[in-house]
Design brief:
Helix content is 29%, strand content 27%. It contains 13 helices and 18 strands.
Length: 376
C-alpha cells in the first residue's frame, strides 16, 4: 500500500528546521504485515527529544529513516501468527520490542531485550525485516515504530492494547514520555511514600517523572531546569520547590532548600553536567538515576570515594525499566483516577507538513509534547 511519511535522509542540518527542512514528506510503499507483524493506522505521534537527537546528529541511526517512536493508533491488519489483536483494536507502541526469550526478557527486564536492541540499532523490525520503501529502495525503521506516517508495520511485541475510550493524542504519551518518566520513579528507583525527590530537566519525560513522584507520595519534589516557564509549570504540577539548574550555585541552593540533599535525584536532561548536578544534590545513602540519553561520546566524572563511603547508588533507566504490557495499562488507570494528569504536558496538534517547525519549537525549549496527527 501507499502511505505518506516523514523521511530523514541526512542528519545535522542547521536550525531553523523550517528553513533547512531535514524531514521530507513523501509517498512511500509499505509492505503487508509479515508473520508476527501488525499494520497500524497511526492516529497520533509525539515529538520527542529522541527523534530530535537523530535529526541533529547526536544519536546516529542508519539513514534514510522514517522517524517517530511515541505513538497510538488502530489495528488495520495482522500477519500470520497474531491472534490476540483484532482489527479495530486501539494500541500504543512501545519503542523496545521484546522477544520474550533472551536473558533480560526472561528476567522480566524487556527494556533490555537483546534482539530488540539489535533490531533498533539496525533500523529493522524485530524479525530483521524492513517494510518501508521509496521507489523500490528500502528505508529504515525508527525504534521499530516509524510513527511519523499515516500507517506503520510494527512487530506484535511492540504493541499494547488499550481502552478505546482513551483519546489518541493522550494515549501516545504513554509509549515514551510516561513510561520513561513515571517508570524511572516507580520501577527503577521504587520511590517510597514520604521520600524527597529532585528532577533535573523538565521536558516531557522530566515532568512525567515529577507527576510519578507525586502519585507515589513523595513528601518533597525539587524541580530544576533552565527555563522559568517549565519551572513554573512544575510548581503547578506538584513540585514543592523549583530553582534554575543553570545557576553556578544550583547544588548549594538545592542543599539549602533540602538540607543534606534528596533521597532520589533523577537526571532527565540528557547531559553529563545535569547528571553531575543530580549526583551532587543526592544525600548520603541516596540514589541518583539517569534516564536522559546524552550523546554517545559524553562522559561524566564522579568521586569514587563518595560512592563507597557514602553508600551511594547510581542507576541507569531505559524505558523506565517498564514491562509495557503491565505498566501502560497501570499508568492509564492512574491517569483516569486523577493521580497522573499527563494531559497537562500536551502542547497541541500539528499535521505531518509542520513537523520541521515543530522540531524547531522542541529544539529551542518552546514545547513539551506536540502531537502529529497524520491526515487520513
Amino acid at each position: 500500500m501507499q502511505i505518506r511519511a516523514a523521511i530523514l535522509e541526512r542528519a545535522g542540518q542547521p536550525l531553523p528546521y523550517a528553513t533547512s527542512r531535514p524531514l521530507r514528506i513523501a509517498t512511500l510503499e509499505l509492505d503487508a504485515p509479515g508473520p508476527g507483524e501488525v499494520l497500524v493506522r497511526i492516529r497520533a505521534a509525539g515529538l520527542c527529544h529522541s527523534d530530535l537527537s537523530v535529526i541533529d546528529g547526536n544519536r546516529p541511526r542508519p539513514l534514510p529513516m522514517v522517524l517517530g517512536h511515541e505513538a497510538a493508533g488502530t489495528v488495520e491488519a495482522v500477519g500470520a501468527g497474531v491472534t490476540d489483536l483484532k482489527v479495530g483494536a486501539h494500541v500504543v507502541a512501545a519503542f523496545v520490542p521484546s522477544c520474550g526469550h533472551c536473558r533480560p526478557c526472561r528476567a522480566a527486564r524487556p527494556a533490555l531485550c537483546e534482539p530488540g536492541f539489535a533490531a533498533n540499532s539496525a533500523g529493522t523490525l524485530l524479525a530483521g525485516t524492513r517494510r518501508l520503501a521509496e521507489q523500490g529502495t528500502a528505508l529504515n525503521h525508527h525504534l521499530g515504530v516509524s510513527a511519523f506516517a499515516t500507517h506503520a508495520i510494527v512487530a506484535r511485541e511492540s504493541l499494547v492494547a488499550i481502552d478505546a475510550a482513551v483519546p489518541f493524542s493522550l494515549a501516545a504519551l504513554f509509549g515514551c514520555a510516561v513510561i520513561t518518566g513515571v517508570g524511572a520513579v516507580a520501577n527503577t528507583a521504587a520511590v517510597p511514600a514520604g521520600a524527597s525527590v529532585a528532577i533535573v530537566g523538565l521536558g516531557g519525560v522530566g515532568l512525567a517523572a515529577l507527576l510519578g513522584a507525586r502519585a507515589l507520595g513523595a513528601a518533597s519534589i525539587l524541580a530544576l531546569d533552565l527555563d522559568p516557564a517549565k519551572r513554573a509549570l512544575a510548581l503547578e504540577l506538584g513540585a514543592t520547590q523549583a530553582i534554575d539548574g543553570g545557576r553556578t550555585d544550583a547544588a548549594s541552593e538545592a542543599r539549602r532548600l533540602l538540607p543534606g540533599g534528596v533521597d532520589f535525584a533523577f537526571e532527565m536532561a540528557g547531559s553529563a553536567r545535569a547528571l553531575e548536578l543530580a549526583w551532587s544534590i543526592t544525600h548520603r545513602g541516596g540514589t541518583t538515576v539517569s534516564a536522559g540519553l546524552a550523546p554517545p561520546a559524553a562522559r561524566f566524572q564522579l568521586p569514587q570515594t563518595a560512592l563507597v563511603a557514602e553508600e551511594r547508588t547510581l542507576k541507569g533507566s531505559y524505558l523506565g525499566s517498564c514491562v509495557p504490557a503491565r505498566d501502560i495499562p497501570r499508568y492509564l488507570e492512574w491517569y483516569r483516577a486523577g493521580r497522573l494528569p499527563v494531559d497537562r504536558l500536551l502542547d497541541g496538534e500539528l499535521p505531518l507538513e509542520e513537523l520541521n517547525s515543530g522540531f524547531d519549537r522542541l529544539a529551542t525549549g518552546g514545547a513539551l509534547r506536540q502531537i502529529v496527527v497524520p491526515a487520513p
